[in-house]
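Justification of resources, computational component.

The compute hours requested in this renewal are based largely on the per-chain cost of generating structure records like the one below. Each record pairs the submitted sequence with a full structure-token output. That output is archived, and it is also reused by downstream analysis tasks.
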Amino acid sequence: MIETNNTYLDIYDDCWLLPIKVDTLAKLKIRSSTDTESGEVAFSALLEPSSLDPSTLKQFIKETNIIIGRNGLVVYPQSLYLVSKLRGEAKVKDTSSIAKGLLAFTRFLDSTCVEQEDEDGNIIPPE
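The structure output for this chain reads:
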């Protein structure tokens, strides 16, 4: 069983799942601005929420989990995949089993970067 409870984060120092609600009709807009002095072009991303009235929008608000890493930051590739499974042709009704599988995979990837200790107290170096 994979724990999704974030109550004991200080004890476990581990990845965990954070339940969120997602607007599946939101659009990502990329804007550019040019510095007049240097000519440097800077890009910024803006998430534009859907413009439907609240009563209609409720059916497009879905709940999923995102993965939070050991450092407290979002693990983006896996979390974006979970959000993407809420819309489009390959959408699913419930992402909880996918989230638990990705959490286990993320923990495995994380464990390959950290020293491990076996039953006899021997240190196993990261691969």
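The chain is about 25% helix and 30% strand. The CA atoms of residues 116 and 124 lie 5 Å apart.
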